[in-house]
Amino acid sequence: MKTHFFFKTARCVTNVVLMVLLMTSCSSDDDTNTVPEPTNTIYDYLLNDSDYSEFSEAVNFTGFEAQLRDMSMDYTVLVPTNDAFDDYYAEHEFESDEAKIEALNIILRQHIFQNEMIDYDDADEGISTQNMNGEDMSFYIEGVTMVIDRNETFATLALETDIEVDNGIIHIVRDVISAN
């Protein structure tokens, strides 16, 4: 009889210990090793497409990486093709790395619109806004093509529009837009 009582008590104690272990192993403090959700920011998009490696290199060279990874703001970014950058570099020489960084900083700010998400439908209605250099840029549709016009002095065509990413929208453009 005592043996039976001993086994019953041991089984109860074992069950209680197992329940306590199971409950503590499921506590919320285990969440410290969670894997962060992958992002698809403007910067991520640029890194994953070699057709825009020149723009991506300019972003890295000038330190715009953090800005294009920023998830707290929305951006519209006009991304020139590698061919557009090749054409630009063929026409412009830089005396030093500092001069190149200064020119690329201006160029990147020509192509970035902070706190704006301008898509094809907005351009269809016609919209004007300022880029990060403070220059007015107009977006409108000609035929079926989006046109981006800088103060009626220079216009480029969007080759591809409305590439949506987590922190904004990208339009692929035919030309590098330099400052006035």
Automatic annotation (TrEMBL):
PROSITE patterns, per database record: FAS1, PROKAR_LIPOPROTEIN
Repeat found in the keyword field: no
Location of the FAS1 domain: 39-177
Signal peptide extent: 1-29
Keywords for the protein's UniProt record, in alphabetical order: Signal
Keyword Repeat part of the UniProt annotation: no
Domain of life: Bacteria
Ranges in a coiled coil: none
Pfam families: Fasciclin
Name of this chain's protein: Fasciclin domain-containing protein
Organism (species): Lacinutrix iliipiscaria
Phylogenetic classification of the source organism: Bacteria, Pseudomonadati, Bacteroidota, Flavobacteriia, Flavobacteriales
